[in-house]
Design brief:
The complex is a heterotrimer of chains A (about 130), B (about 400) and C (about 120). A four-stranded mixed sheet of chain A has the order 3-2-8-7, with no helix packed on it. The radius of gyration of chain A is 17 Å and the shape is globular. Chain A is about 25% helix and about 25% strand. The longest helix of chain A is centred in the middle third of the chain and has 13 residues, at about 60-70. Chain A is built from four helices and eight strands; from the N terminus they run E-H-E-E-E-E-H-H-E-E-E-H. With about 130 residues, chain A is an alpha+beta fold. Helices cover about 80% and strands about 0% of the residues of chain B. Chain B has 17 helices and no strands. Chain C is mainly β and about 120 residues long. Helix content of chain C is about 10%, strand content about 30%. Chain C has a six-stranded mixed sheet, with no helix packed on it. In chain C, strands 3-4 form a two-stranded antiparallel ribbon. Chain C is globular. Classes of the chains: A alpha+beta (about 130), B mainly alpha (about 400), C mainly beta (about 120). Chains in contact: A-B, A-C, B-C. At the A-B interface, strand 3, helix 2 and helix 4 of A face helix 5, helix 13 and helix 14 of B. Strand 1 of chain A pairs antiparallel with strand 2 (about 20-30) of chain C.
């Protein structure tokens, strides 16, 4: 494992994230780097996912709109992007697999409006068809 | 028999793609106006969709990645967003038109105005997506759609001069009174209909809904190589039927009921009854395909949970996108906008956006980090490279031709 | 700093000559240990080139063979690509990266195999 190399844009950016139960939990919208205090080299500290990260990356009017949606969903003034620590990543392949449940992620910190207001009110929302 | 049932995903995808409301009219119209001079386009289209649907299905089975995830991974967030915008818009127009198409089939059967059927049809489409098992849905609408084989039966009963039909198809000439730009505009419309991108969105996501893996690659190929040629065969049968019955009488086609005319002439009331069941199933199938695709594309771009293999509560945003698309689609066609015009435009616009969807499929199907030993072979790659060239030419030529011919009128 | 701050930035050498834009960031797994992931990835260097499709497609993966038309096309497009070891980076500014060497000291990036090793 040590010394293994990969190209961030090709191999991890825009890849689907899957939680410990195999549920889809967003896309790698960006990576966040921290600086090693001894060597001064930047290292990957977390994965950014969600409208703030994607909006910032896209830029322009659509990007701004996405970021504003993100801000409106939160109580705090400047919530910052949703982060997933690289420490909970299990494997990076065709998917990024993580060792926690998606409910415990930053991207789930605001209530799920689509689920709570609409979908869960429709009869049958809680039943799988198979 | 069990193996035969397993190919219903391919059949539903192809029938919904090839003989939906817009294609029924476009195929009938091209037969009535150009006889078999455009038959070669259907053949080219069938080979193209077989190539790329097979790749998309194989990638889904091997790496569990559906098409719009590949689009995002390979084209990056920005270009993929542009593709999402275009694909979602075209898909939405088609969804709206198919809802109206089901309603038109019901109008032909019941003489109750189609506008009154629209809310009911929209509700039924949503209910099937919400409650019916994916595999049940495939079987019911895929197999009922086979009623459209009545086109082939009618053609055979009519007993045309097969040699003349074949030679007309093999030596295409533009009939006097029709210009070359109009001919090529129709060619693009037929090609776009054959390769319309919602087929691969639906087929590859359906492969994951059906939990296909590497072990199912034989079934995957059977689905493609039986389903899409069957769809193409139905298109050709309708085209031929109109070329031998309508073209000599100078009747052109612009409505669904006119497209049913030749079958009624040959097969009578019983033929019409079977045909209406087929049209109902094909348009309903296409409405399901586009309804699902609305949710699949958005959810896959943003990484949301999607699919019928989880409880709706687990995939709330996916289901919300589907629900809102169906409601908006129903409202669009309730404005009495001509649904056939809507699909004709959407097919041609789709042709302009095709490379953005098919290019990433080709790239990933060659990438061993996704596919391992199941990467494309040489023959597939050679053919796919040629098709990529065709797709690029078509996408550049589409909009100018549309303006030049005033959309084929 | 985010990955997107580096991607697409223009890179200038010590004489202020443009080397191209950042097409990708090569990572190497030798960073500090974080959680159960273990040693994280740190930046190995930048893959810089002229002219780009917007994102990389994988044709410069060693194991990716076809289709030959596309492979040939992208090999040609990427023939002028250069690898900038992170040690050479002097400053990261807004959409602009300055390096402390001359452009002609840079070499082509090495292709990675499927196990994440550079080809000799």
């Amino acid at each position: 494992m040590a010394g293994q190399k990969m190209d961030a844009g090709l191999d991890i950016l825009d890849v689907q994230i899957v939680d410990k139960d195999g549920r889809m939990s967003g896309v790698v919208d960006d990576l966040d780097f921290s600086w090693d205090e001894e060597t001064g080299a930047p290292y990957v500290s977390s994965i950014l996912s969600g409208p703030e990260a994607l909006g910032t990356r896209l830029g322009g009017r659509i990007g701004l709109w996405m970021a504003s949606v993100h801000a409106r969903l939160h109580d705090r003034e400047d919530p910052g992007p949703a982060k997933i620590s690289i420490g909970v990543v299990k494997k990076i392949s065709n998917h990024v697999e993580i060792t926690v449940s998606r409910e415990d992620l930053d991207i789930s910190r605001s209530p799920d409006w689509a689920r709570d207001t609409i979908i869960s009110k429709i009869p049958g929302a809680d039943r799988a068809v198979e | 028999m069990k193996k035969l049932i397993e190919i219903t995903l391919g059949i539903l995808t192809a029938i919904g793609g090839f003989v939906d409301i817009g294609d029924l009219v476009a195929n009938a119209e091209s037969g009535a106006r150009f006889k078999m001079a455009l038959a070669w386009v259907v053949v080219v289209g069938v080979i193209g969709i077989c190539l790329f649907a097979e790749m998309a299905g194989r990638v889904a089975a091997v790496s569990q990645r559906p098409v719009f995830s590949l689009v995002r991974e390979r084209l990056g967030a920005k270009v993929a967003l542009a593709n999402l915008g275009a694909s979602f818009f075209i898909n939405f127009l088609t969804l709206a038109a198919e809802i109206a198409g089901v309603a038109l089939a019901l109008e032909l059967a019941s003489s109750v105005n189609y506008l009154l059927w629209i809310p009911l049809v929209a509700f039924a489409v949503w209910l099937v997506i919400w409650r019916v098992r994916f595999s049940t849905m495939e079987k019911v609408f895929g197999l009922l759609g086979l009623c459209l084989l009545v086109f082939a039966v009618a053609l055979w009963r009519f007993g045309p001069d097969w040699g003349a039909l074949l030679s007309n198809a093999a030596h295409p000439t533009v009939p006097s009174g029709e210009g070359h730009p109009t001919y090529f505009y129709f060619a693009i419309a037929l090609f776009g209909a054959a390769m319309t991108p919602y087929e691969v969105f639906f087929f590859s996501s359906g492969a994951i809904e059906e939990k296909w893996t590497k072990k199912d690659l034989v079934v995957e190929r059977m689905n493609v190589y039986i389903g899409f040629p069957l769809g193409g065969l139905l298109s050709l049968a309708l085209m031929a039927l109109c070329s031998v019955i309508l073209a000599p009488r100078g009747i052109t086609v612009s409505t669904l009921s006119q497209a049913t005319l030749p079958t009624v002439v040959v097969m009578g009331k019983l033929g019409l009854a079977v045909l209406l069941v087929g049209i109902f199933a094909a348009t309903f199938g296409a409405a399901l395909e586009t309804g699902f695709s609305a949710g699949y594309t958005v959810a896959q771009y943003l990484g949301w949970q999607w699919g019928k293999f989880v409880r709706p509560k687990e995939a709330p945003r996916f289901h919300l996108v589907v629900l809102v698309s169906i409601i908006m689609g129903a409202f669009l066609v309730l404005t009495t906008i001509d649904p056939i015009k809507v699909t004709e435009y959407s097919i041609v616009l789709a042709a302009a956006a095709l490379p953005l969807t098919y290019f990433p499929i080709l790239v990933v199907a060659n990438d061993p980090s996704y596919m391992g030993e199941h990467v494309n072979g040489r023959v597939t790659n050679a053919l796919a490279s040629i098709y990529l060239g065709i797709l690029l030419i078509v996408s550049v030529a589409t909009i100018p031709l549309m303006i030049l011919t005033k959309a084929g009128s | 700093m985010r990955l997107s701050d580096l991607l697409h930035s223009e890179v200038y050498d010590q004489d202020g000559v443009s080397v191209g834009h950042v097409h990708d960031v090569r990572l190497v797994r030798d960073g500090p240990v974080i959680g159960s992931f273990g040693a994280t990835f740190s930046i190995d260097g930048l893959i810089v080139g002229k002219g780009s499709f917007g994102s990389r497609l994988g044709f410069d993966r060693a194991a990716m063979k076809g289709p030959w038309v596309l492979k040939a096309l992208f090999n040609r497009l990427h023939a002028s690509s250069r690898f900038v070891p992170w040690d050479f980076v002097a400053a990261v500014e807004e959409r602009k990266i300055l390096i402390s060497r001359a452009a002609k000291e840079l070499h082509e990036p090495k292709a990675l195999d499927l196990n994440g090793r550079e080809e000799a």
